[in-house]
Write a structure and sequence with these properties.
Elements lengths: L1 H13 L1 H19 L3 H19 L3 H6 L10 H15 L12 E4 L13 E4 L2 E4 L2 H6 L1
Antiparallel strand pairs: 1-3, 2-3
Length: 138
């Protein structure tokens, strides 16, 4: 599956407009979900998006359009940093700090039904969880 994702990214790089849009969708989700969480929190959200892309075999725009993710307009002063981080994640230039998490939620909020403490990791204000059933049900 990793080869399929790499192939998709190479195909996108041939079309810079599409590649930019993929990075922008991921960056918008990173900003909306992890602003104020520091670089590790931002990377963690980006890697959850990437993991879901791999599992669902969908683009970052499709993955962040539904369900768990919120996207927000990027402020001009932060746009470059978020887009560069998104590109680095999409091109495998970063290490996944979540160890393959598929979901996350804010600490202090209602605990989701899919929460499994044995598969969780806290980064910033979020709990990242690898929901094993998610990968097998897609």
């Amino acid at each position: 599956m990793k080869n399929l994702l790499i192939f998709a990214l190479l195909a996108l790089s041939a079309n810079s407009k599409a590649a930019y849009r993929e990075a922008e969708c991921m960056a918008q989700a990173m900003f909306a979900e992890a602003r104020g969480q520091g670089q590790q929190g931002i990377l963690a959200v980006a890697h959850v998006v990437k993991t879901r892309m791999r599992i669902e075999q969908k683009s970052s725009c499709s993955v962040t359009r539904k369900g768990q993710f919120v996207r927000a307009r990027l402020p001009a002063r932060l746009r470059g940093m978020y887009l560069q981080t998104a590109l680095d994640v999409l091109l495998d230039k970063t290490i996944d700090p979540t160890n393959g998490a598929t979901h996350f939620f804010r600490r202090g909020s209602k605990t989701p039904f899919w929460y499994d403490e044995s598969r969780s990791l806290i980064i910033g204000d979020h709990v990242f969880v690898n929901v094993a059933a998610y990968a097998t049900n897609q």
